[in-house]
Amino acid sequence: MASLLNKVPKSARHGRAAGALDLSQPDHPAVWAQHARVVEQLTANKFTDAAEMLTDAAHDILAFSTFPKEHWRQIWSNNPQERLNREIRRRTEVGGIFPNRGAIIRLIGAVLCEQNDEWSVARRYMSIDSLAKASVVSSTVTRQTIKRG
């Protein structure tokens, strides 16, 4: 979002550009339609750099919409990944200087194992059934996209 807002004048950042990019829509086609409306609106307001950026990044930005709706909240943000990176950074800074490469690999491996246990058992991020459903839906959307392309 910050990269997009850098492409528009400061006077338009808070109102027109920032508010337009709301991708919380009911289904996959609606998300893509909203994206098209935003690109059209940006082009109409002569923010062609921002419109071009959104058009080029469409498949990356909207990849979440190929999964079932109940997964969208978990995958349209990279906050869990950022939180994990901060925890790794915090633990390595506490350690300071490591005697060899193996020592830091063991520390980071332990942090990753701990996080994996938390995500898979204590606070299940996505259920196995839900992931199986996502796999079926994702492969169907991929086949439809290949046929169109």
β-strand number: 0
What is the number of helices? 9
Please state the overall shape, judged from the principal axes of the Cα atoms: flat
Strand content: under 5%
Largest sheet: none
Helical fraction equals over 70%
Distance between the termini: 28 Å
Return residue spans where pLDDT drops below 50 for at least 5 consecutive residues.
none
- Oligomer classification: single chain
Order of helices and strands: HHHHHHHHH
Q: Write down the Rg.
A: 20 Å
Overall average residue pLDDT: 78
Class from secondary-structure proportions: mainly alpha
How many structural domains? 2
General description of the model:
This protein has helices spanning 2-5, 10-20, 28-44, 48-56, 58-61, 72-75, 79-95, 101-122, 128-148. It is mainly α and 149 residues long. It has two domains: 2-66; 77-148, no CATH class. The chain starts with a helix and ends with a helix. The model has no long low-confidence stretch (mean pLDDT 78).
